[in-house]
Amino acid sequence: MIKKLLLTPGPIELTPAVRQSLVANSIGHLSPTFTTTFQNALNNTKRLFKTTNGQPIIISGSGTLGWDLFGSNVVNRNDSILLISTGFFSDSFASCLTGYGAKVDKLDAIPGHIVPLKTIQEKLQKNNYKAVVMTQVDTSTAVLNDVQGISQLVKEFSPNSFVVVDGVCSIGCEVFEFDNWNIDYCLTASQKAIGAPPGLSISMVSPRLLKYVMNERDTTDQVTSFYLSFKKWLPIMESCIQGKPSYFATPPVQLILSLDVALKELLDATPRGLDERIEKSSKTSDWFKQQLTKELGLKMIPQDPQYTAHGLTTIYVENPADLIKFLADNGVFIAGPMLKSIPPYARVGHMGVSAWDNDNNQHITRCYELLREYCTTKSKV
Ligand SMILES: *Cc1c(COP(=O)(O)O)cnc(C)c1O
Question: Which positions bind substrate (predicted)?
């Protein structure tokens, strides 16, 4: 029987240790064991985002919930928001915020490109935005945004705007610095580069944004969410990070146990920790992309390596469904296209253990060998 291998841009393959954590006996959500685990996971989440002052919020949900967390806690009717779109996920974030009454000014990149900084600067100089929203890696195209550059522009030309980042496809596999880059809100999910199962919404909130939500925001005319309220969750997260159990709504105990294990593997299993993992992932990504373009003559959506993601590869193919089936018949599962406005393409995810341990597990190497076989025998690409 062939070994099955999941190479989608999330969920990703789990390491044996993460899988093992999921078969533990049931434990109480207020037990000392769980509280200590949650405390570790919260502290390690801060290390993952490179922050000392940020407030982590970890609750049940998927990546998408992070958009709603921002919408329901921050956005008031008619708030003006600049959203820099690099694809499908940025557009969905925009739809979410529109639902909370925001007036979203959307700057659309040409597919495969970023929005030039100059264009963003002009917008910031002309308007007054409550927040500037971007996606670090849009998983529909594999475009890597210049988060640091955009945040610098905001600091210079619109310092009162909150800087908001969707990091679902980048936290854990791209360089990201919450404090140094002056980010106010960043969201991710457990099942992408972090390498835990789906089910956790993981966010980081700056002290400045937290102060706004807790003390300054006027919610007189807003309908607000009960479950998503930072005012409800903040005391819980603060208590847990001090090692004291506290209850608002039951946390997904087993998922948090698995998150704790996954974060330790990312942050503490190698001498240089996260940086080493990210470097290894980038190396695998560079190798894979180079093989596909140089050896197989395939074309990727982003053309500029500076703006190309390291957690997935998008390749133009004539018949994505046929390629996906060929790989699936050989045990390797990849993803199809998301944007309809450009020629057909396929997406290969290589986040987490598949990338940082490719030297040993050969996950990406195996995918490459199959792609080569497909290209040479079928010549349909
Ligand atoms: C996957 C993804 C999401 C959505 O996450 P879900 O867990 O599927 O809700 C949002 N943004 C980006 C950039 C993603 O890659």
Answer: 347
How far, in Å, is the centroid of ligand 1 from the Cα of 169? 7
Q: Whose CA is nearest to atom 8 of ligand 1?
A: 63
Q: Where are the beta strands (DSSP E) in 265-323?
A: 312-316
63 lines ligand 1 (CB under 6 A): yes
Q: Which atom of ligand 1 is nearest to the CA of 67?
A: 10
Mean pLDDT, 10 residues at a time, over the chain (381 residues)?
A: 94 98 94 97 98 98 98 98 98 98 98 97 98 98 98 98 98 98 98 98 98 97 94 98 96 97 98 98 98 97 97 97 97 97 97 98 98 85 47
The CATH number assigned to the domain with range 16-267 reads 3.40.640.10
Ligand 1 pocket residue status of 267, Cβ below 6 Å: no
Residue 187 parent element (H or E): strand 185-189
Do the domains spanning 5-12+272-380 and 16-267 agree at the CATH topology level? no
CA distance 196 to 12: 8
Q: Homologous superfamily of 5-12+272-380 in CATH?
A: Aspartate Aminotransferase, domain 1 (3.90.1150.10)
Buried b (16+ CB within 10 A) or exposed e, 128-142: ebbbbbbbbbbbbbb
Helical (H) or strand (E) element with 81: strand 80-85
Expressed in angstroms and rounded, the spacing between residue 172 Cα and the centre of ligand 1 is 14
CA-nearest residue for atom 2, ligand 1, is 168
Pocket test for ligand 1, best of 138, 139, 188 (most atoms within 8 A of CB): 139
| Alpha carbon of 62 to ligand 1 centroid (Å) | 7
pTM over 0.85: yes
Question: Where do the structural domains in the chain lie, given as residue ranges?
Answer: 5-12+272-380, 16-267
pLDDT, tens digit, 9 for 90 and up, residues 304-341: 999 999 999 999 999 999 999 999 999 999 999 999 99
